[in-house]
């Protein structure tokens, strides 16, 4: 029954898109269909592995293309105590980030820089584009934190704060006077898109190497949520930069996987495979509770679309479909489709 309902939703999404596009199939844009309401009531689009220089020569070009979410793969280099950005190298960078010190620098200079310059590129792009944002930064901590070697959550936060601390929308900002992030989310304490113009929102997921390392028994999601909970207990929540995220599409409340029940209320970000969410999970639960949900690999939802260069109307319809299925962020590899990446639509509509 759920699958049939999802198919009906997909047909309805296509019909809605056709109406928005109008005669001649003109491009749907964030300006022509800008969503209203809080962050938890809107859907935006992001690019998987945005740091890939084969896709964008400069990270700022992804923002020029309209992406609202950038994904960075981060490695904690325990030998140099640097935070590397690459797909598969622990000790070297392979990315499109440059060493900018002003907005005029974000398209110049050599690439392959650490996480800090990647964040600076985003900071200076926002400075050059008043009114744009917020920009989500999804961090995959590839091999996890190494707290015992000086590269744990506190070191990460200190590093991030030194680069973009004044631009962050933080867990403490959502929390306000609420007891937990869960309580704040359920109260829909999120601000609106327009209220967060010029801001950055960071969230972190466990990495593929970490998850496949049998000797790593403390994964990023547990480690950062525990750290955040402890910060709150000591009155230091404001120093936290990043939202911990539950990884993996599963039925019910996926936070129940954590044996330490005290960390569960510190998760309000969720991330998983779009096809799984659409085919077998009641995702209205996320929307009802105002949790932010990233759906990945949007192209693989049946009927599958081209990984990189699908028909624009088909990709736009897919975003509308996933927004209707309660995604907050639609993640894809459609790096060359600005009319798709710039979409902002009403969630659940």
Briefly, what is this?
This protein is of the alpha/beta class.
Description:
It is built from twelve helices and ten strands. The radius of gyration is 19 Å and the shape is globular. With 349 residues, it is an alpha/beta fold. It is 32% helix and 16% strand. α1 (2-21) packs across α11 (312-324) and α3 (115-128) packs parallel to α4. It has an eight-stranded parallel barrel with strand order 1-2-4-5-6-7-8-9, surrounded by four helices. It has helices at residues 2-21, 59-64, 115-128, 153-164, 171-175, 181-186, 208-211, 220-233, 274-280, 284-288, 312-324, 338-341; strands spanning 42-47, 69-77, 82-85, 135-141, 200-206, 242-247, 269-273, 292-296, 329-332, 345-346.
- Nearest-integer average pLDDT: 91
Q: CA-to-CA gap between the ends?
A: 20 Å
Strand content: 15-25%
What's the number of helices?
12
* Biggest beta sheet attributes: 8 strands, parallel, barrel
Estimated radius of gyration: 19 Å
Relative helix content: 25-40%
Give the strand order, joined by hyphens, for the main sheet. Answer: 1-2-4-5-6-7-8-9
Unreliable runs? 1-33
Instruction: Give me the secondary-structure category.
Output: alpha/beta
Coarse shape: globular
Order of helices and strands: HEHEEHEHHHEHHEEHHEHEHE
Task: Give the topology.
Blueprint: H1 2-21, E1 42-47, H2 59-64, E2 69-77, E3 82-85, H3 115-128, E4 135-141, H4 153-164, H5 171-175, H6 181-186, E5 200-206, H7 208-211, H8 220-233, E6 242-247, E7 269-273, H9 274-280, H10 284-288, E8 292-296, H11 312-324, E9 329-332, H12 338-341, E10 345-346
Parallel strand pairs: 1-2, 1-9, 2-4, 4-5, 5-6, 6-7, 7-8, 8-9
Antiparallel strand pairs: 1-10, 2-3
Helix pairs in contact: 1-11, 3-4
